[in-house]
Write a structure and sequence with these properties.
single chain, 141 residues, alpha+beta, 6-stranded antiparallel beta sheet, two-stranded antiparallel ribbon, 4 helices, 26% helix, globular, Synaptic_Scaffolding_LAP-MAGUK, Tax1-binding_p3, PDZ domain-containing protein, PDZ
Length: 141
């Protein structure tokens, strides 16, 4: 089924969706214990340390193509963007985001080849985050 999906491209249509579908399908074959989960996170109003109003999402990230994953205290094995902390009761926790989730996309933007700063800036910029995450050890329901 995966191979069939990979060759259904028609001229004039976007390849991005096709390649992501193939990528996700390929990962599911190679790493059957990794599942791709869509998460929608609505930020909530809060205050930053200086007392300014901001929209808070309640999670922290680590990684990026500019980081050395071998120095990661979490032991990650690649330069992906990973969730390193989720605050209890936060929008992230309420949406189902978990520590160690790997963020593949945010609002359709590819997070597999971004710097840490680019990922942080992109997350801060948007009030709603439509995430696609990879999570180890989740079985199909």
């Amino acid at each position: 089924m995966c191979a069939k999906m990979a060759f259904q491209h028609q001229a004039g249509t976007a390849m991005e969706c096709l390649s992501m579908a193939f990528y996700m399908c390929s990962l599911s074959i190679v790493f059957p214990s990794i599942r791709h989960i869509p998460i929608t996170l609505q930020k909530e109003p809060g205050l930053d340390p200086e007392g300014r109003e901001v929209l808070k999402c309640g999670f922290k990230i680590g990684g990026g193509i500019d980081q050395d994953y071998r120095k990661s205290p979490q032991g990650y094995t690649d330069n992906g963007i990973y969730v390193t902390e989720v605050h209890d009761g936060s929008p992230a926790a309420k949406s189902g985001l978990r520590m160690h989730d790997k963020i593949l996309q945010c609002n359709g933007y590819d997070f597999t080849m971004v710097t840490h700063k680019k990922a942080v800036d992109y997350i801060k910029k948007h009030p709603i985050l439509n995430l696609l995450v990879a999570r180890k050890g989740v079985t199909s329901t």
